[in-house]
Amino acid sequence: MENIVASIRSCTASRDLEQARSIHARVLEGEHRDNTLLANLLMKMYGRCGCPGEARKIFDATLHPNAYSWSILIAAYAFNGQLDLARQVLESMREPDVVSWTALLTGYAQNGDLDSAQTIFDSMPVRNVVSWTAMITGYAQLGQFLKAELLFKAMPERNIVSWTAMVSAYAQNRHLQEARALFDSMPEKNVVTYNAMIQAYADAREIDEARALFDRMPSRNVASWNVMLKTYAEAGLVDKTENLFRDMPEKDTVSWNIVIQSYFSSTKIEKARQAFAEMPRPDVVTSNIMIAGFVQNGHLEDARRIFDGRSSQLDIVSWNTIISAYAQRGDFAVAQELFDSMTHRTKITWNALFSAYAQHRRLEEAKLLFDRMPHERSTEIWNALAAAYVHDSRFNEAKRLFDEMPERDVFSWTGMVAAYTTSGNLDLARRMFDSMPDKDLVAWNSMIAAHCRVGNVDDVLRLYTGLLLAGTVPDEVTFTTVLGASSHAGLLREGLAYFVSMTLDHRIMPLQRHYRCVIDLLGRSGLLLDAEQLLKGLPYNFAADDIAGAAFLGACKTHRDVDRGAQVAREVIDMDAKDDTPYVLLSSIYSGRRAV
Length: 596
Fold this sequence. Notes:
Blueprint: H1 2-14, H2 17-29, H3 36-48, H4 52-61, H5 67-79, H6 83-92, H7 98-110, H8 114-123, H9 129-141, H10 145-154, H11 160-172, H12 176-185, H13 191-203, H14 207-216, H15 222-234, H16 238-247, H17 253-265, H18 269-278, H19 284-296, H20 300-309, H21 316-328, H22 332-341, H23 347-359, H24 363-372, H25 379-391, H26 395-404, H27 410-422, H28 426-435, H29 441-453, H30 457-469, H31 476-489, H32 492-504, H33 512-524, H34 528-536, H35 546-558, H36 562-575, H37 581-595
């Protein structure tokens, strides 16, 4: 019986459903099939493997369920988010004990429903330290560490678990000093407490502090080593990760997975392959790391070999990764074949293949998959298909899809505005834009740019003013369009005002394209000296900017200031004799003078 108990507990930790069913079958065939302890352990195992219905079947078949049987069933439902069923179990109990109440309370807290958790906590006839700790942990995980702190201070008694939970609460909310102060004030510490504090330093990227505390630990378990190993790995310190892994007195599956992931992240593909070959007990997480690692590093064939060779240790993540990889590569026949062979698909599976079809403009396949989706389509999916139609210039189909959307967000509206501006239909674009319940910067920029393209400078400037009045903050793209429109219209005063406002009011540092617009504006306005001074004062080598130079020399030709243009052209030639642009412009300037 000891062996079967160990197997059940191991499977509970690994959450391997296939193994869980195999173990359950062995129990049913053995002499201990009516043992309540084994029944309880099997219920917990199925709960952790995501099958609370199986846990319920075992509970119903148990001849003599005890108080723990009820609590485990409640926990199985709660762990899988089936809180109504968990509550029904509690309410069907004759006299729920504190363990059962705490199991339900923990379920609500872990699922983020802290209002219901608090209601249960307040109504509990008896609370224990586990109940208090569950509430502290729940508030901490949602970032409400002040409530967690108040509960901790109000606890009638604390144990090492509650102290550790509060250390983690501070750490999760980036209060590292408070976490360390509480850690130092603890009346006693165990290895879990040390691990929590090391994790706090790791989350804050205080790697040296994490290592110093790790070195001072009176005793360590494999989790301690794994925390430090993961700290190095996530910081990209692959050599330190490798050395620490080599020094570990005991390694578990998590240790191997961390080091393999570290190798892939640092593109040490062969080392990852070697570690996988040496790993004693790879699990489903290992399979996912290997498949994703090979895919991300461009080794799809290797990923497929892992996928095909470990069919018994794959989950939905494995399938989604390999399907996405083939689809993104454009190998849709294989992606579709894998998709069709799946017995169970999630929303992510459908979305991954659909998005790849849409991005590659395989619109017929995308629409077919869109129509087949069994779940409610998200707004993002509707937007992706509409955008694919727009990119393929199928504007009527994009509009039809837009009209059918059950819900629209700002991206839905902006996509249609962009569609109409791209097709040159400014009237429809403007009507769509004016109908938008919320306008984002992309929509404003799209409308401003569309009017600029057709030379409607007055509309460009009116839209820019409207953008500011709406409280929208312009960006570099906005100013490129507004400055360009000002330059082409010869609006010197307005253009210079926008350029000054860009830096003073909006704290946007001018880019090369903004300087080009202002040089062109000054040149068109005949302010050649100012244009020359700006050109020579650019924060980058003006000789390398063909466009700004061409604008300036073109202005010199237009305003017949041949000497100034020739002097600047010669300076450009001196700095970069290989560039033939100034020679062409200089020739054009002189030919212009001869023609006068």
